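REVIEWER CHECKLIST
Item 1: Sequence provided? yes
Item 2: Single chain? yes
Item 3: Sequence as submitted:
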Amino acid sequence: MLPAALDWFFRDCNSGRIVVGQWPNTPLCLFGLLQAVAWIAGEDTAVGR
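Item 4: Structure as written out by the authors:
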């Protein structure tokens, strides 16, 4: 049961290929960008908190 559910969850309905992330994935890109900014800013700034 579980393998079938995972197969359904990660399979593209149109092409049948396995898909983990699709481009452009705006929320994921925004999250990554903001995490990088927080990491660069450090823990002592308001951004790093």
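Item 5: Key structural point noted by reviewer: The radius of gyration is 17 Å.
Item 6: Recommendation: ____
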